[in-house]
Design a protein that fits this description.
alpha+beta; globular; 15 strands; about 35% helix; seven-stranded mixed sheet
Length: about 350
C-alpha cells in the first residue's frame, strides 16, 4: 500500500543519491538555490509499506510573466523504482501542484540511456512547447584509463590538452575566497560571447550549497598571477556535469580551457564517475551540427566547436512534456511564446 508524503530535505536526498538516474537538479540543494531567486519548492514522495521512499519528484514553481499564473517545473525527473508507481506518483503531483494554483506543469525527464522513457501522455501530459534545459548534449565515457579516454578525442583537442599542461599553468580546486576571480571571468566571457551571466551572489550560493558537501567543484587556472579559466562541475551517482565555464581574453594561446576541463574529468574519474556530461549543444542531429558549426556562433553553436572534440557521444534527452491545469492561462502562455519567436 503506497503512502504520499512531503519528505524532509535529508530524507529526499537519501533517495535521490541512491537512485540510478540521480541528478543534481533533483537535489534539495538545487531547490534551495532556486528558492533564493524567485522559485518555490515542493517535494512529493511515494513510500512503501516499510515507509521507504520509492518514487517522487522535486517540483519548482514560479509566477509566469504577464499575470499568466504559475508554472510548475520538474527538472530531470520524476523518479520511480517500479512502473506500478507512476499513476500514484502523478496523482500526488497533480494534486499538490493544483493546490498551488499552477496553470500548468512542465516535466523534463532527462536522459534515458538503458531504458525507454515512459509515454507520459498516459497521465494526460502533452508534448511541451518549450524546454528550459538544453535537450541535447555530449556524454564522455570516462570509465577507461586516461590514455584510452585521450585516444577517443580528436587530434586537435588532444594536442591542446597536452599544450595546456606544458605552460606552467596552475590548476587547482578553488576556495570560496576565489569566487571573485570566477565571477570576473564569467563577466568577460559573457561580454565576449554576448550571453547573460548570473550575479556574483548566485555563484556564491551555488558554491556554498554544493562544494563543501563535495557534490560540486570549482576549478580555476592561473598563470603568473592571471586567472585564465574557471569551471563549475557537479557530480551525483555515476554522472558528472560541466555546468558553467568561463575564460579570460588574455593568454588564450596557453589553452587553459582545455587543461582545466581535463583536470575536471580526472577529478570525476577519481570519484568513480562513469559519464561526464558537457551540458548543452544545439538541438540538431549530428550531420547538421557537423555541417554548420564552423559557420555559426549563435546560442549553443558557439560552444559546440569546443565540445565536439572530446570523444563523447551526442545524446538527446527524453522529450519534455506539459500537464495543463488551466487551458485559458496556458493558451496565454503559448501566445507569449509565439510572439517571442516572431521577434527573435
Amino acid at each position: 500500500m503506497f503512502k504520499i508524503i512531503d519528505p524532509a530535505p535529508q530524507q529526499w536526498d537519501t533517495f535521490v543519491n541512491q537512485h540510478p538516474r540521480a541528478h543534481f537538479l533533483q537535489q534539495s540543494a538545487w531547490g534551495d538555490l532556486k528558492a533564493a531567486y524567485g522559485w518555490r519548492v515542493l517535494r512529493v514522495a511515494v513510500t512503501d509499506e516499510q515507509n521507504r521512499i520509492v518514487a517522487g519528484a522535486q517540483i519548482l514553481l514560479r509566477p509566469l510573466p504577464g499575470k499568466l499564473g504559475t508554472m510548475a517545473y520538474i527538472p530531470m525527473g520524476p523518479y520511480v523504482t517500479a512502473d506500478d508507481q507512476w499513476s500514484t506518483l502523478w496523482g500526488a503531483i497533480n494534486k499538490r501542484v493544483q493546490q498551488k494554483k499552477a496553470a500548468f506543469l512542465k516535466c523534463e525527464p532527462g536522459i534515458y540511456l538503458r531504458e525507454t522513457p515512459p509515454d507520459f501522455s498516459r497521465w494526460k501530459l502533452q508534448p511541451a512547447l518549450q524546454t528550459i534545459q538544453p535537450p541535447r548534449t555530449i556524454l564522455i565515457d570516462i570509465r577507461a584509463d586516461e590514455d584510452t579516454i585521450l585516444a577517443r578525442m580528436n587530434q586537435g583537442t588532444r594536442r591542446k590538452i597536452r599544450q595546456s599542461l606544458k605552460n606552467s599553468i596552475h590548476y587547482y580546486e578553488a576556495t570560496r575566497d576565489d569566487l571573485p576571480k570566477f565571477n570576473a571571468l564569467m563577466q568577460t566571457t559573457g561580454q565576449r560571447n554576448d550571453f547573460g551571466v548570473h550575479e556574483p551572489d548566485y555563484y556564491a550560493k551555488m558554491y556554498d550549497l554544493f562544494v563543501p558537501q563535495r557534490d560540486a567543484v570549482l576549478f580555476l587556472a592561473d598563470h603568473e598571477g592571471d586567472a585564465l579559466a574557471g569551471i563549475f562541475v557537479f557530480a551525483k551517482g555515476k554522472n558528472a556535469w560541466y555546468l558553467a565555464g568561463a575564460s579570460s581574453d588574455h593568454k588564450r594561446n596557453l589553452m587553459a580551457s582545455y587543461g582545466i576541463q581535463w583536470h575536471a574529468i580526472q577529478w570525476a574519474k577519481a570519484r568513480g564517475i562513469h559519464s561526464y556530461d558537457l551540458w548543452g549543444i544545439p538541438d540538431e542531429d549530428e550531420a547538421t551540427l557537423e555541417a554548420q558549426f564552423q559557420e555559426r556562433s549563435d546560442g549553443l553553436w558557439g560552444v559546440y566547436g569546443f565540445k565536439r572534440g572530446w570523444g563523447g557521444d551526442i545524446v538527446r534527452a527524453a522529450d519534455a512534456w506539459d500537464r495543463v491545469y488551466n487551458p485559458l492561462l496556458y493558451n496565454g502562455y503559448k501566445a507569449v511564446l509565439w510572439l517571442r519567436e516572431q521577434q527573435s
